Amino acid sequence: EVQLVESGGGLVQPGGSLRLSCVASGFTFSTYWMSWVRQAPGKGLEWVATIKQDGSEESYVDSVKGRFTISRDNAKNSLSLQMNSLRGEDTAVYYCASGRRFPNWGQGTLVTVSS
Amino acid sequence: DVVMTQSPLSLPVTLGQPASISCRSSQSLVHSDGNTYLNWFQQRPGQSPRRLIYKVSNRDSGVPDRFSGSGSGTDFTLKISRVEAEDVGVYYCMQGTHWPPLTFGGGTKVEIK
Predict the structure, then answer these.
(1) HEC sequence for A60-114
(2) How much is the pLDDT for A17?
(3) Do A103 and B60 touch (CB under 8 A)?
(4) What mean pLDDT do residues A2-10 have?
(5) What is the pLDDT of residues B51-94, one digit of tens each?
(6) CA atoms within 13 A on the CB side of B109
(7) Mean pLDDT over residues B41-60, rounded?
(8) Angle of CA points A7, A8, A14, to nearest 5°
(9) Interface residue B95 vs chain A (CB under 8 A)
(10) From CA B107, how far away is CA A21, in angstroms rounded?
């Protein structure tokens, strides 16, 4: 059974930083692109970032470029999202999702940016 | 960027009746490899999204056959042949052909009348 388990969310002040993690199991992690997708409270889904299997390619939505960094550790089946210079509009549930077509999703972790 | 437009925003349906959701893209979703990367997701209240359909019309494992996807080019449809209570939630289309960015439609809320 495929499992994606996120952690690391919480309350952070504007301008602060947070690092999200996702641990994968039940599939060959190193053979999949991996992504982060977010959902602001009461809003729709927004793609945030994607990383290639070997980490050689990364892509980001324009609103987070230069502030967020996606990375992965294939030896530990883990995906990370380093979020710096956080803003109120980054408040959302952040989901880890497999691939670029998102066949599998985690349960999400809530990030709240507020003073 | 490819803009995905869904309609309607809200869809009240009687149990056992069919439902249909439309998704239109601002440009053709046919990839140079010949595939059309249009997916549909269901998000039940309080749950994570779940993919139902990939590449326009392919059902994911475990998805009931009352769900079907169709369309081509820029116009796509998700149909539920007979709505059940467990189908309540928000449905999203998403394109994966022209990226980055990967883009979602705004969502269609299905509720029971």
Answers:
(1) ECHHHCCCEEEEEEHHHCEEEEEECCCCHHHCEEEEEEECCCCCCECCCEEEEEC
(2) 98
(3) yes
(4) 97
(5) 999 999 999 999 999 999 999 999 999 999 999 999 999 999 99
(6) 9
(7) 98
(8) 145
(9) no
(10) 27
